[in-house]
Fold:
Amino acid sequence: TGGVLSVYLDIDPSTATREGYEAALIELWKPLVARLEDPWLLGRLEYEIEAVVSEVRSWEEAPGRSVAMFFSGPGGIRMLLPLQFPVPSVARFEPRPVVAPLIAALDEHRRYGVVMFDKSEARLITVFLGEVEEETHLKADVTVGRTEIGGWGGYLQARYARHREHHLAENARRVVEHMWAIDRSRPMHAVVLAGPDEALSVLRRALPPELARAVAGQVAGEMFASTADVVQHVAAIEEQAREREDREAVEQIEQRLGKHSDVTVGWDETLQALAEGRVHLLLLPAGAASAGVQCPSEDFLATAARETCPICGEALFATGDIVEAAVRTALHRDSLVRFLAPEASKLLAPRGIAALLRY
Structure:
């Protein structure tokens, strides 16, 4: 098709006007046009630019906090994805759609669940891509409270305590069933629990191992708090959990380096393993960038200058962003891709990129 114009446009609420959009787009077009020398490709790019500008001018209001657009007239591609979180503005004209910024955003805004639980009710909230995805409110079949019951040497008090514990356990079981159903249909990367300590201790005992491992934190929470306040309050816990998980992944790489053959560190060694289909998990620091060369058949990727692929003999073509090529190759090889959180990125950035290998 000669190329796909991929545009990620950050829509700043303070400048969310048509004039603001068009001014931002003009700045994105300048480096694209300057790099093209082929008249035919330049004509193709100008055609796609006109289509994007026409689309933006048709907006009566911004479709989201940011937007991803992919346009190719000859390829029959005209796709607009509204996003409810900011992304860095970028435009690229490549043979295939540029997806690395979208993958990075998905890593940053993963699905997590908030479970607010007490003796009489529960709220289950799932958050995905920066916004509330679903909220469920559950009422207990039987409400029990605290009271003092005397008589018969405390027998009735002990019996009431067992009765209360039983109903708390039943409420917890019902909540866990709903959590399990949500996680089976839309897996939650992390879960944050909120509520009084006594109720949450009962809920934690009811969690199956898979959900228990996903618990990222526990906070005191009021059942009547607004959904927006709840999400804002627990988002920091989920962010800390992501940092901790990513830092552990980098530390695992460092510990295994030189002792085992199932890890790679550095651009060219990791890119070679990726092209060979040996990568299980590709780790990329936030903002990782490097120029390089790639084979049209994805048999070879490297940052060093070469003219032909050592695998298939095809002529290599240069790219200003080998990360995009690495992400696309990883997806084609069924490898996992993880863009690291900011602090974990600082640990890996001096080494470039890294990977856990299948073999």
